[in-house]
Queue: 3 jobs
Job 1
Amino acid sequence: MLGVGNIGMVHLKSALSMAAVDVRAAADAMPENRNRAERAGVPRTYDDYTTLLDAEELDAAVVALPPFLHADAVERAAENDVDVFVEKPLARSSEEADRLLETARKAGIAVGVDHTLRYQPDMIGVKSEYEDGTVGRVPYASITRLNDGPLGRPPVEHAPPSWPLDADAAGGGSLLELGIHCFDVLEWLFGDLDVRDATTDATLDIPVEDAATVLLRAPETETTITLHCGSYQWEQLPEVNTRLRLEGITGTISNQDHLPGNFYASAAKSALSNVASRVTGSESDVFGPTFYLQAHYEALSAFCEAIRNGERPPVDGRDGKRSLELAETAYELAADGDGDELETMEVT
């Protein structure tokens, strides 16, 4: 495990719960993160991922580091003949992704990418219903993905990490953090997309965009799509922060209709368990609310199964690069546009 911060701990708990996976070690620059990993059951921890890769005999590594370290981590893994499962975005740009993938190709290692929406049961339900043809052709679709972003939901108890608010380190703002998921799941549904127009906005006084709206067209299905993503909403789990609607000729398909039947009951049970764990000082259940985090388990499990069988990962580096290309086109159109930015809001 290369990085055991927020999402890294999700991947770690996933891997630890897989019967056919042996977690050997974890690396993180933060002592508190290494301590958490050790408490979770990791036998060895390192303060540097390059040291871990040189010291351990590994089949695969999960790269859950900030985006500016992805390319270097993959290069180091390639030097040690280690396959990689990379947290999205694959890289900060398609050019950086090209270099990363060329390094992997020359070394003969596999690259998987954690595009998790494909593994959520509501998105699987939408795809199944769409492919059944029950609503006929879909002239229009829309997707919205929102959360509270790196600043967190007020009142904020701890300062956020610096890299998500640094465009050079992260590659961008909410369009790259959240929109990248949307691009991937939309091409999974409709095939290749063309980006027609885009705008990015800042509702808060931060260095990266925290809102973006993109107009897309799917030539194969003749579907027009609007995508909106933002990190300005004070989300409250277990509310679902992704809305997907397909407006077909004979009806509508919505991901809201494909949520697990026990979604709220399961989330409430997990929330109560997590509250109790904080009182007793034990580890919280990383899979609760399970709806979101179980999808990360499925994505990593599918990658491991492909590697075990000598197959190409189901969501691989090409998919990761493709989503970056769409995001870059959106950024370019937004920069060239004349749209008015949202007025900056004061949040108290």
Job 2
Amino acid sequence: MDVGCITNNLPSIAHPPKHGTKEDKEDEPLVFDASLPRHEHNLPKQFIWPDEEKPCLNPPELVVPLVDLRGFLSGDPVAAMEASGLMSEACRKHGFFLVVNHGIDSRLISHAHRFMDDFFELPLSQKQRAQRKKGEHCGYASSFPGRFSSKLPWKETLSFQFSADKHSKNLVKDYLCEKMGHEFEQFGMVYQEYCEAMSNLSLVIMELLGMSLGVGRTCFREFFDNNNSIMRLNYYPPCQKPDLTLGTGPHCDPTSLTILHQDKVGGLQVYVDNEWHSITPNFNAFVVNIGDTFMALSNGRYKSCLHRAVVNNQKTRKSLAFFLCPRDDKVVTPPSELVDHVSPRIYPDFTWPMFLEFTQKHYRADMNTLDQFTNWVQRNKS
């Protein structure tokens, strides 16, 4: 792809469209071509984060519980109690834990990582066939310059919707083939299968979370049974100034539950006890964290924690993120067992599409997203 001439003294990693006057170009969002920045030492100011948010060197490692699912999956009640207890402890403190012996085929995980290269190593013009449109959450996004004018993340993503409804059996595959062509059919089949595996795993985790909160195994599993979730492929190219930018800025996930698989490069950091901590990659484990929607569902008992991703100057980092979300018509309201005079209602009733619209059109996700959304809902009601 011809990147054209560069204006505004911007380096070639971020460039405006090729046509129009200088004034027109200054009003246009930048285009981030991730194939070019590997050797670029000058970062556009839009990618440079404020000093108080820049990555720290050698953060301490976060000690997160390793939850072994083998016993629970085999029906061992003692193992189930132990697993739910570990989750409860983590979720009351920071909302992060690892799961191992989860039953997901290791070959499927490897394929899901390998097939990312088939997409992200394409020329920019071909990836843009799946371009994410303004106000939407699915499609290809290259650093989100169309949404934000500062603090841009150093990454590319490909997001698509998954439905556990039996009438939407091939939603992922059909979407990817529609956007990228039928030569991406195998690509689509891999992520269709991966999403189905993540959906099943999330329901297992929801059983244990239900046990840990004293509302029973079926409460949350049934709530998310026909989930309407989001899958995201994250691709963080090397950056020659990793101390100035971030792959993903500090935020809490607005979704219910995130199941993340990191490659071996690492870069996930979590903010706990007023300090950033790293979570070391473990290819045999999934990193699980509570999102804002489940924090509301638990009436604030379980925490949605601030986290971010950093980049490095040597290697591309890849991660697979499955964001569990309830079906569109489900009302997010805590079970009656979690509401009493000691723990009154904290958040209003809402549906996931309401919250998603808020984060896409009205508010950039950060540590205050759920509180800001609560205020927004109350203002609209009044």
Job 3
Amino acid sequence: MKIKNFGLLVLSIILFSGCKNNPDEALKANYLDFTQRDDQFTGGIKMIPISTPIGKFNVWTKRVGNNPKIKVLLLHGGPGGTHEFFESFDGYFPQESIEYIYYDQLGSYYSDQPNDNRLWTTERFVEEVEQVRKALQLDNTNFYLLGQSWGGILAMEYALKYQKNLKGLIISNMMASAPAYNKYAEEVLGPKLPTSVFNQIKTFEKNKDYSNPKYTELLFKYYYTEHILRLPIDKWPESINRAFKHLNPNVYVYMQGPSEFGITGDATLKDWDITSKLKTLTVPTLAIGSKYDTMDPEHMKWISKEVQNGRFLFCPNGSHCSQYDDQQHYFPGIIQFLKDVNNGDFLKKS
């Protein structure tokens, strides 16, 4: 029995020594170790208190993995969406030992949902992200911000004010101008629809008849399955269906409008445009565009050249949710970006 234990001890020492000599192996061995973390009790979940102009609320976060050098905060779409749009990341980031944090913004399903439109401004959301960053102790040695769709707007706005806190920025499937996005939907994507379908959609929108079941049916059948997620509706992942089920319509309609076919109605984001400010961004930036996206991939390519240290990732099979319908390009591109920035190779390869 003593000999057996001694053998195990020697084997443990050998394995531990190997980890010490190989940082990647040590990182992988430590990746799912919660023992030194203050969120072990909740499995990585933290409700983070935030201050707003109308009072204090709590937002939901969940940290996955341990990596002191790469921590990715995920900003979901909507507005009023949830972290559930990102659940496919579970299939790719852990095997690369990338730490990532799910986060439901204020007003979203797992966070507090106050009913006050004064809260739904990009400026306030930026300050919310900054409070979350501080609570999670993220800084420019490890903090990467990934925003998809509306989350891309929020990520860009955050970087314009707080890029000194970032190590890297990822803008996924979002243009830098709402008017340009609307123009692309109207002049490029719309005319690709069957003429009768496009005319019906425009008639519904002209009459502001957004709640008409026929309007929703047309969008899902002819537009969403082509440009939001390129799968038949009955094949959509459960996490996506859950995310849509949990969408807060009050926040969504107030800021984005009642449709994904452009930013419509009286939505507050309708005139949002930061194209003239992008050249001030110096943080390493990855802009992701997809062939079938609701967003113009050429605009995303332009963003990557307009910022001072940019890279473009093109997803030839993807739409707005490329994290699901073009995973073979989306995830390798993001993972390579994170590793290149972390290793100091970003400028050499971009």
